[in-house]
Amino acid sequence: MMENQTAALSPVDVLIEAAGRGSQIALKQLYEVESRRLYGIALRIVRRPEIAADVLQEAFVQIWQNAAAFSHERGTGAAWLTGIVRFRALDAVRKAGREIPTDDPTLGDEAVEPDVIDKIGASAEADALRRCLKLLEREQQLCIVLAFVDGLSHSEVAAHIKAPLGSVKSWIRRGLLSLRRCLEE
Amino acid sequence: MIPDNSEELRVLAGEYVLGVLDADEADEVAAALAVNAELRRAVAFWERQLHPLSSLATSAEPPSGTWQAIEARIRTKTAKPIATSLWSNLALWRWSTAGFAAAAAALALWIAAVPTPRPSLVAILHPPQQDQASWIATAGRSGLVLRAVTTATPPSDRAFELWAIAPGATQPRSLGVISPNGELKLSRLPPDLRDGATLAISIEPIGGSPTQLPSGPVVYVGSVKAV
Fold this sequence. Notes:
The complex is a heterodimer. In chain A, 71% of the residues lie in helices and 0% in strands.
């Protein structure tokens, strides 16, 4: 938490704070700056543009309502926005049940690529995550990326990589344990 | 079930952030977040640490009209007159944090004087544009207690009513009318009450607001924090 307090505020953080004080202009600017990134995250999870647009809409209404409660102690504004969009997207997937196709031939392809971890953007936090993910076993790494980026549940990951559900649960569990130890070092 | 073991708790938080839990399990974690500070910290840890993975999703242009739809919904929300006065009061209140340290010191003394069980949530309420702590609410598993710090009396033929606004909620929900001695006790923790929620007190007819929303002015507000 200490380092977050001394870190310089990003433009996104400043816009969230201004939106929290009731500025609709700030929210609109936030949309202009962040909507493409956030829509991409939602689309990757829900797979359907009309649902992704709904997710983005719900997320921005929630951002507007909760911006005043955003605290830098919890992390960067960008991560906060991502968290809201991902949970909205996962919620949409759960509500829609199996309406969202998981047999899409392109689903999760990227996660299977051997160098996918190298594609994670550049920043101090990204460097740490990349280094720690690379220490995981291949299956652990794959399951975690599929779950986070493609929004797959335990059973969907299992179906997708054709592995037993119990193995997938265990890989994710042990992967998270190792990841945490490495990230906290 | 939410594990007591710290390592198990962190794994569960990680699974929650990854999104692999089924709906029931995810709901259970979401509900526990309100009362479990360690779980909250663990979830925040994973949200922060895993965030760079989201850069693997390719950015894309949202359909045109998405912003207009968002704007329309925000406008609708603030168009309600009662909600407007409440929210603008809250917006003002968000500016006034200068007196918070003093209020927190008073609160620490107050908590020390309160018998167990220790509350897990507290809120200091003050007038929207002032820093003076006027009410303290403490809540935990055993329910909620709201007490006036200084003598606060509603106008004659009126009563104070306490409202909770859950984080992300658009409408306040009544927690009840405050008795004339300046106290309100609930034996169960209202679901809306969790870290990041807002408490507000409005002036209402005796017996409470005739509608589901505050009908009179909001005279005290405060933010609920986990301790």
